[in-house]
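Minutes, project check-in
Item: structure for the 201-residue chain
Input as provided by the requester:
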Amino acid sequence: MKSYNIWILDGTSVDDKTAARQESKLLSALVSAYPKKQWEIRPILRHVRSRSALERVLAEIRGHKPNTAAGIHFVGHAGLGEEGTYLLLGKEALSLEDRAGLEVFKSLPVDWILLSCCNVGWRGPVLRALRLTSGCDAVFAYKGVIEDYQAFTIDALLYHLLLVNTPPGMNEQQMTYALFRRRLGGASRQLLIGASIVASY
């Protein structure tokens, strides 16, 4: 049976008291609940509390079979400051607006990346640069501040669209990702979630 790997990268620090630390466990349980047909859906949880830890995990992902379908889901915190958009890896900031930061994500054998954290989606060129550098088909991110329980809901809906409506391992067309984003956008409005979800594909 072929594997569809979802790499859940937990960037929260060890003393983080928010529910974000619990999201990676919830997502692992959610993915494990999907029916196993021709694909075995495998959640793979890794902690990335520093740039060096993230580099090690991404090297591990690159070492997997090139034909294994996969996605990367970053869970944690991020920000938008004077120096631009950044991810927090533990207490270490990784800029997504300079070449050195983007190069960390270079040439990843994954279909999609989901950044489950606040404010990463404000700058479309950043998402586009991350998509082009990583070589993935789509990057999803939140535009605005999103509460942990809201992220649980929208993330779960995206998993449903990816894992149920589209057979794992297929080469999704751009319109498919556009449809996913529209459905998630409609869901966030209906559920009165303040942040919107944006994408580059």
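Outcome recorded: Residues 2-200 form a domain with the Rossmann fold fold (CATH 3.40.50).
No further action items on this chain.
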